[in-house]
Design goal:
By secondary structure, the protein is an alpha/beta fold. The protein has 16 helices and 24 strands. The longest helix is centred in the N-terminal third of the chain and has 15 residues, at about 15-30.
């Protein structure tokens, strides 16, 4: 199975969505009955008629100290009394061709809550000039200059400024908050915690996601530093320059700044996130010591907040309104207190809503399932609790071609289908067992849940010096041989000599998944996934083994549903 690349840009808006945003923009710039009346076809006329009565909107450019011009928009409450001030929220753009206009649907909510709103496109994006630095030090310095400009606007309270951003805007918001103490609160949806872990997991490059992001950035608009990093990642030259580039752009490296300032931080991510590392977001959240909240939802990157950015309801944006209100004194939210700690949905139920004080109280204890050889008459190995199972060997061929098991057939879009209750179905019964090794539990005697962190250990003996394996934990129906994915992780081994056996222990992406009675947990390990770079030499083979003293296992936080 190959990664579906028929869609040029997984973040593209539909023609109707673009037409709606343009109609909203025209009504904001010219709130005449004719312009506002055009919004009736989307049921938005009343919203923007009310907005026009309470706030004014304009678009302009903000000049940076080096002459770069940032494309921006500003919404300010009308008729503030003399001496009256209002809180302000800054919205750095997500990585999308329309830049800051992606937030047009949110502006009425912020305005009705009494906020001034400044949205802008980072340098090199949309209509902003300059080169793209990928939320680097220059972009953080720009954020400070944006705050300087905002603080000069009549009626804006310079002591009540917050940042909200989605995806690229989330990264910019978090990194700016680490530098500028005037940012009193930050909310980042589809955020990242460690950029290096998002590019390079367990020695394996996330090439599909990386190339999708590079395409969105447009290499011709990127800085020389970023272009050098692009070529190094493509050529698998992961050196100090790449690490330093990613480190400077990773919020996890600024924990001291967040914690010493006690900055309130709201983060959101998704269980099937294919762009940024979920474990890194969890790690960042866990190590923050100030007020903090984490939401993990069904789906993939950007799926959860999509409706909210368009002005509709979504958990991420509703939580963001409450979060910013609580610290800045506005009223964009529904008046409810913000949620601290962990809030989550389980796969694939959008109506589920679990809350815990911390990740430690959220993540359930893990149970060890040992990997064993196949029982007599069976082709797949066994996953079972009890004692270790040493002494078996499973051989897997590396052909350079992917099979039925992949992280996601489509970046972002597969997760969006999951949010609609339509997870991708894998025909694991049809997988060539010469190309993958598979283990399964006995059918579950009751409904169970996987909730928290997972880890596995396996010994790999490749014919060549280097090898990549990809592990997938599946929810399998024994009656049909069809499965849906629970979680995954890659691992790339670099040995000094061919044929060297190496025991590796690594984490899989955390999960929250409910399995029905009678289903099986199924572990698939293969050698190729188009989502990741492949270090295998094709054709070749590798052996998966379970030597005495280093027996293979997978630790799963599996517990009864009740």
């Amino acid at each position: 199975m190959s990664l579906d690349s028929t869609q040029e840009n997984p973040f593209d808006l539909s023609p109707d969505e673009l037409a709606k945003l343009e109609a909203i923009r025209e009504a904001l710039l010219d709130p005449s009955p004719r312009r506002i009346g055009r919004l009736d076809q989307w049921g938005l006329a009343d919203t923007y008629e009310t907005y026009a009565e309470i706030a004014g909107y304009r678009e302009f450019s903000i000049a940076m100290s080096d002459g770069t011009m940032l494309d921006a928009s500003l919404s300010v409450p009308r008729d503030l009394a003399p001496g009256q001030t209002c809180p302000a929220v800054v919205l750095p753009a997500p990585l999308i061709s329309i830049g800051h206009r992606a937030y047009l649907g949110m502006i009425p909510r912020w305005a009705l809550g009494g906020y001034a709103v400044l949205a802008y496109s980072q340098r090199g994006l949309a209509k902003s000039t300059g080169e793209i630095h990928v939320a680097g030090p220059q972009d953080v310095a720009d954020a400070t200059e944006v705050i300087n400009a905002l603080a000069q606007i009549d009626g804006v309270d310079p002591d009540r400024i917050g940042f909200f951003g989605s995806s690229y805007g989330a990264g910019t918001s978090l990194l700016a908050a680490a530098r500028d103490p005037r940012i009193k609160v930050v909310a980042g949806t589809s955020a990242w915690g460690d950029l290096f872990a998002s590019l390079y997991e367990n020695g394996t490059r996330h090439l599909a996601a990386f190339e999708a992001l590079v395409k969105l950035f447009d290499e011709d608009r990127c800085s020389e530093e970023f272009r050098n990093v692009i070529e190094k990642i493509r050529s698998n030259t992961i050196d100090d320059e790449v690490r330093e580039f990613a480190g400077a752009r990773s919020p996890k490296h600024y924990l001291d700044a967040y914690n010493s300032a006690n900055t309130p931080v709201l983060l959101t991510t998704a269980w099937h996130e294919t762009i940024f590392s979920v474990p890194a977001v969890v790690d960042l959240f866990t190590k923050l010591t100030g007020p903090k909240s984490l939401l993990v939802q069904v789906g993939d990157h950007g799926n959860g907040e999509l409706a909210g950015l368009a002005g509709l309801l979504s958990k991420p944006t509703e939580m963001a309104y409450r979060w910013v209100d609580y610290y800045l004194g506005g009223s964009a939210g529904d008046g409810a207190q913000p949620q601290f700690g962990v809030r989550s949905e389980y796969m694939h139920n959008l109506l589920s809503d679990l809350r815990h004080d911390s990740w430690e109280s959220y993540a359930l204890p893990r149970r060890r399932f040992h990997l064993a050889d196949a029982a007599a008459g069976e082709r797949d190995g066994q996953m079972s609790e009890g004692g270790p199972k040493p002494g078996w060997t499973r051989s897997v061929k590396a052909t350079g071609q992917s099979i039925e098991a992949v992280v996601a057939p489509k970046l972002v879009q597969t997760g969006l289908a999951e949010r609609m209750g339509l997870p991708h179905v894998y025909k694991t019964a049809e997988i060539d067992r010469g190309l993958a090794a598979i283990w399964a539990t006995e059918p579950l005697e009751r409904a169970m849940r996987v909730q928290g962190d997972l880890e596995m250990r396996v010994t790999v003996k490749p014919q060549e010096t280097d090898a990549t394996i990809v592990a997938y934990l599946m929810d399998s129906d024994p009656a049909t041989g069809r499965s849906t994915i629970i979680t995954h992780a890659p691992y790339t081994i670099t040995n000094e000599r061919p044929g060297q056996a190496t025991t590796v222990t690594f984490s899989l992406q955390p999960a929250h998944y409910v399995l029905a009675k009678g289903r099986r947990l199924q572990l698939v390990i293969d050698t190729n996934d188009p989502f990741f770079a492949d270090a295998n030499t094709a054709p070749s083979a590798l052996e998966l083994t379970s030597p005495q003293g280093a027996e293979s296992y997978i630790d799963i936080p599996l517990h009864p549903l009740d």
